[in-house]
Fold this sequence. Notes:
Among the domains are: 2-54, no CATH class; 98-123. Helix content is 49%, strand content 0%. It has four helices and no strands.
Amino acid sequence: xxxxxxHRVRTGVHWxxxxxxxxxxxxxxxRHRMWSADGTWERLLQQVQAAADAADEINWDVSVDSTxxxxxxxxxxxxxxxxxxxxxxGDASEEHQHETPWQSLVARLVEVVLKARAWAARAAGSPQxxx
Length: 131
């Protein structure tokens, strides 16, 4: 079982493509899933690390080089705050003056949707005209 699981992890093959020498692929898959869910792999790793550390076989120094670990393109100084509000032309209504730009946008969208619904209701109630 363990050899089958490790073979799959090392090679990246699909579970169904495991060689027959590891047994039925479904059994190997189910065992891996069960051991992952109940924490068997974590406990096994802790025991192996503890034994290797006691034997002074592990070097815990970590070296990170930017040529190896690259940042994602979106990690390069993206803004976290919303964009600034557009310049007002003096026609801002009193009811929206203390809102954030996002709240103003949502309020305006609600107004537009309500007007569109009212227009559609009026149009549905009027007789059809053919041109």
